[in-house]
Amino acid sequence: MGCNSSKKQGDLPFRQTIVILRHSERLDHIDPEGYKASEEGKAWPFDTPLTAKGVQLAQEVARELGVLHASGASFAAVVASPYRRCMQTAAEVAKQLKLPVMIDQEVGEVWEKAMPSDRPPHRQPVDLETMSSQLGVTLKNPILPQGGVKLFGKPPQSWPETNEQGHRRCTVRVEYYIEQSALTKQNFIIVAAILFVHTVGRGIFAPGLLASNQIVREGSTPTRMGSRMLPQWLHWRISCNEAKSQSASSSIARGLSLSGL
Asked: What is the pTM of this model?
């Protein structure tokens, strides 16, 4: 069941679709000692890049999502966690589908005890602006007067953040994107860590919350390397009535434009 974006005869119906994509293969899981000893690893121990194979895998998934995009999903933007592995994965999708990227810190990793306590350990606004340019993507994020990217969303509110707090943060944020999708008739691809994928799969789309949702397809069947899973994406087609019902009962502020994310 879809949502009509207009009542004019002949208009194509809007099909609300949300894709959740896990980042591709990360270097510190494949070569932990090598990355730890590298200059980048010393500077950014929790903000690893993808492997060369990870970039290739992201490109493969991007082509799969291109088919979905062309078949009527018509995505408006790729939402990415500010962590480098997510940015790299998002960049491959964005370039394939010719979409802008929105960096959202609220879909980032759990700010766990092993990480620095002064701030989440991903690149900072100026670094993210430079990285985005190097990756060849167009950002929807505003640029700060002093330079650097203004991140959408809120950072984790406490350190250390528990898994439960991280799950809640992810749930609230995906509810927001569902709500914005229904209000603006725009679809989103969200690129984040495995926690985000698990949170959405077990929580917000669980039976009884959005009862008429269904998993239409699970793409890129995970490949295992030890206990590590490679890119995996899920997408949902959402009933217009159910999405509006969820929006009405949500505690998230309504009526915000994308520029207010």
From this structure: 0.79
